[in-house]
Request: fold
Amino acid sequence: MDLAAVAVVLLVWLVASAWAGDRMGAWIEDKTWRLVTQLLTFAVLLPIPLADELMARPQFDAVCRDRAQLTIHIPEALGSATRRRPLKPEPVDGVGLPASSQTWWVLSEQARLVVASYEVVQVRGGWLARWARGTDAEPVTFRGRCQPPDLERRLDPSPAPGLPGNPGLQGATVG
Reply:
């Protein structure tokens, strides 16, 4: 199953929410309160299939702001050839969906030292995404992976034309 299955489920849920709202209003004689009841029932039921993702999004954004950071350990070694090595992913609590954080080391080929390190945070989708696309599916409502902003540019050792220094160090933690 794929995104088409998700769309079908959401369309069926839309119709079911409208039907349930209509049925709830049928019990009320006053037209104004009937309409209010119908609209409230519809509004409450509509987001339920995606509720876990909708609630997890702000939590995921906060974790990304805190963890997806680049740290430059040896700035002068960025000019040499480097390779990247991922460490074991660790679970992240407080997101509401299955999430993990993975540290990556940027290693100097010559000196065999850790030149820089950064974290990538990843979250799996809610129950609808996992049902439709499998247990490792990304969320339906947002991109479930974040890394430090402009990571590639900040790790690039070559200065921009006409600018002195290393633009890759802008905004990075050196230490």
About this structure: The chain has two domains: 1-46, 50-174. The mean pLDDT is 81. Residues 1-46 form one domain.
